[in-house]
Amino acid sequence: MVGPLDLAVGKVFRRVVPLFIVMLICNQLNRGNIGYVQRHLEADVGLGAAAYGFGAGLFFIAYALFELPSNMLMERYGPKIWLTRIMVSWGVVSAAMVFVQGPMSFYLLRFLLGAAEAGFFPAIIYYFSRWLPSSHRGRATALFVAGSSIAAAISGPLSGPLLAMHGFLGIPGWQWLFVLEGTLSVVVGLFAYRRLDTSIETATWLSGDEKKALSNAIEQEDAGRRATADGPVSRWRMLLHPQILLFCLIYFAIQLSIYANTFWLPTIVHRISGADDVTVGLLSSLPWICAIVAMYLTGRASDRTGRSKPLLIAALVVAAIATYLAAVASPVFALVLLCVAAMGFKSASPLFWTIPQGNVHPVAIASVVAVVNSLGNLGGFVAPYGFGLIKEATGEVTWGLYALAAACLVAAVLVLFVRRDRVVAPPVGPL
Description:
globular, single chain, Growth Hormone, Chain: A, transmembrane helix, 77% helix, 431 residues, mainly alpha, transport
């Protein structure tokens, strides 16, 4: 017989998780769509490879700077209001990319986009921690993070036709891409405001017994983590906690791989003879489609076994080996290997996030996620900018792939030092 807790969890998965997936798809479309317009920006506004890489990465500098302040405001206003604000503002800024006239305007808008998006991912992770028991968060996080792979999988087939609108109403195709994808984020953000609830107690779609069972399950887990916590620390001193530093380094390596491929995969695929914009878009979706399947399977395995660490290590090792081989393979075979690599580094992301959720005091989890996500996301600056410098200097991205392989291997080793018996305590004081 299905109990009220199982019924409540099932309702959360049906009502909230799909919405978050759609929101993340919009998020990834708006931050990664410049990968498909690089050649058009170079032709129309004179944006070179190094300038493109710097601007692509500048997003993550702003993201890191504004992540923790955004997180603190989310705690004040609640994830419902703050997620709506984030989505609407990033949609407006993304649409404003049509006004890019050169490197400086490109840099400015990418910085503003990062500032607008800051706090999105921690708000989602925090929402899961308040609405789902830990035994279900691995699968929920995997399904949510799969949204980024879904976005990457559809962005290619979507970008091709949008770019093909070049000249319609006298507007270049790359401008159509930014306007339409930015507008979509605004619409979804407004819909999310009507769909989300501020707490379990205010959810009219849960029965009284379901609310009680879900609240009790989460409170019991919170009480267990409170009993094993270290002494309290401030938000800024959390940066010096050994486990938090370890989380940041591991996530930094994961983000290096994800965003290097997000921004430069179309360029790598362009090496295939005869590939045009539509073909590149279709072929670039293959690694992300493979990643979706791998993420779901590893997320289920993590929930069933409770052994996310071995799975995370295996995913990172697979990503390292496949990325290294892709650097020396022919263009077609390199695409196959990048499909395997994507299965590794994309699966690593949701597997990774189950570990901080189990190690961190419930009161501190939002702040810890913000710190780890903001510093780890700096990999999103290093990867595209580094690849841009390498490509401009050598004409190829081979050495960049070598570096990604090494980073994944180092991250796999660092996971061995993560402890599951130490819970970071809640922050105290004004910071």
